[in-house]
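Hello Y.,

Per our agreement to keep a running log of every chain we model this quarter, I'm adding this entry. I've kept the format consistent with earlier entries: sequence first, then predicted structure.
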Amino acid sequence: MFRLSRYMNALANKVQNVEPRKNAKREAAALAGGTPTGPVVIWNLIRRCNLTCKHCYSVSADIDFPGELSTTEVSSVITDLRQFGVPVLILSGGEPLMRKDIFEISHLAKSMGFYVGLSTNGTLITDETADRIAEVGYDYVGVSIDGIEETHDDFRQKKGSFKEAMNGIRLCRDLGIKVGMRFTPTQYNSHELPLILELMETESVDKLYVSHLNYSGRGNRNRERDVVHQTSRWVMDELFKAAWSDAMGERRREYVTGNNDADGVYLLHWVAEHYPEHLAYMQGVLRAWGGNSSGVNIANIDNLGNVHPDTFWWNYNLGNVKERAFSDIWTDTSDSLMAGLKMQTRPLRGRCRVCPELAVCGGNTRVRAWQMTGDPWWADPACYLSDEELGIDASSYAEDVPVPGELETRVVRWAS
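Predicted structure for the entry above:
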């Protein structure tokens, strides 16, 4: 996750000479989010969903899926996560509000001291549900918005879903719950990003999470809908303008991106163009962030209890929390993928291996390379910066080739 506003605000302080800090290392660590003792866990508690979104990574449906964890099993896992030092739980699905014990689970997590987020499509947030959300005291509620009305309804494949989702956002907002919007740009909806930014203003929404489309689940089957590199750059340019305007003004809205750590490198190019005198400072800050943290500071548990390096590795299982403690699974580097992900410098090939900005992006999203080539260590095909921009000589990696078949595939027991 790339916390764009955090870095824009830090840069604005430098530009405006506001409260400069004396300890650069401590400042960089704080901006990078620090080092948690355990990973952030995104937990898909249920696969059932009332929608069938075109870009869904969990390939959900409005049916019950057998084998999902019981309340007792979930409670046991939560205890292990807390003892392991997991700081954040993001409860997702499917649609988590379709799980009958979602509020019981959420109350337990809050009582144990987790930062607890709820990731929902928003359509099931009624007055009564909003009150229960407020009672839990979620630290954050994220609602997916894929465009304005017609576009959103088309992506969600349900007419009226935009109005329902926006009603859910308003109900949460009016109860003082921190609520934000999630937007996944593709070739079919990226042009509506300015309208989404306007919607933030008119609806007084203070957070926007822009998730680059990943090659997984339905997103993998529809990979041709992924924004082309030039569109990715345009999306980031729009976010840079919005975040910088807020940072230099009085608004403190939060802009975050995910699933493409090249965003950090692209920000450095923006800083080099607009404020070159602060480039070295921002390089230090972003290197402290370090980019992709799948398998290190980001983890996923699916509805069956399978553990994955992140939410897009659903066809690669590391183990199951019904059989082994999450803490044991997560620290087991006998798995070749986890061993590589946890290396200080990952065993990358292709242009990623020789990229001078590797310390910033961390090699970007590995699952895309695996989906496209069968090699998890090949260059991420969604990096939208050219060799020339990165200062890479193509001859330096010309002899590199993908090496597929190194991983033992652990197929999730999906109902197709």
